[in-house]
Amino acid sequence: MSTADLVASTVLAKSSTLLNDTARTIYTYTAVLPYLQIAMQELQEHFELNSIPVTQLTSALINIPVGTTQIIYNGVGVPKLPDDMIEPNQLWERQTGIDPYVPMSRRDYIPHQFEGTTTSKFSFYVWENQIIKFLPSNQSNDIKIDYIKDIFTPLVDETSLINVINAATFLEYRTAGLCAEFIERNLASANSLNTYAIMALDRATGIGVKGKQTILTRRRPFRAAYKKRGFMT
């Protein structure tokens, strides 16, 4: 099995073992699954904050017809955002079929002095209410989006795949830590498991940062933030 084929049952079983319940008498798949989902949400947020490459993706070409002013999720008959996009990082535009792409600037608001006008290129955009908005163009243009993506598909049961690399150890310890805290109400055990989870997350984060920047960086702000949130006491 490759790291890309990590099955939820593997993480759930190891979390139960860390809680001295290898037979899963108390920590069944059903009982532990909600805590694995929480651990996965935390991992997603941490990877997003630290721009780990696994969260980064570029969209396919999106054609923007003449007069179009927005790209939305679940659009019908209008340009559509990638389903897994959480936040745009950079937009690129070109006249349809004509290279090169040039970067667009992100603004908080569309400047009011341009309202009611059209342009041959967009130049800037806003990200508002989960919609990308821009001025209408008088020609057809292409856009590509560099964006932060959702790295996980929803967990349905223990057979679901966890499609992320180098995070199994964090998920095992953090899931067990959550169970120790909220099922057992054993804070000593939870703190010990969470310490191992933080060390595993440091390693997973360091691998991603090293691959991106060719240096290994400690993510100390994460430690401080999680102490405040109760990850460690």
Molecular shape: elongated
Number of strands: 11
Structural class: alpha+beta
The overall average pLDDT, rounded, is 87
Number of domains: 2
Can you summarize the main beta sheet? 5 strands, antiparallel
Radius of gyration: 22 Å
- Unreliable stretches: 214-229
By DSSP (H or I, 4+ residues per run), the number of helices equals: 5
Q: H/E element string?
A: EHHEEEEEEEEEEHHH
Q: Percent of residues in beta strands? A: 15-25%
**What is the share of helical residues?**
25-40%
Distance between the termini: 36 Å
Question: Please, could you describe this protein's structure?
Answer:
The protein has helices spanning 8-18, 29-49, 168-184, 187-213, 220-229; strands spanning 6-7, 56-58, 62-64, 70-71, 85-95, 102-103, 105-107, 124-128, 131-133, 141-149, 161-162. Helix 1 crosses helix 2 (29-49), helix 2 crosses helix 3 and helix 3 (168-184) runs antiparallel to helix 4. Strand 5 (85-95) and strand 6 form a beta hairpin. It is of the alpha+beta class and 233 residues long. The protein is elongated, with a radius of gyration of 22 Å. It has 5 helices and 11 strands, in the order E-H-H-E-E-E-E-E-E-E-E-E-E-H-H-H. Helix content is 37%, strand content 19%. The protein folds into 2 domains: 3-54 and 152-229, no CATH class; 55-149, no CATH class.
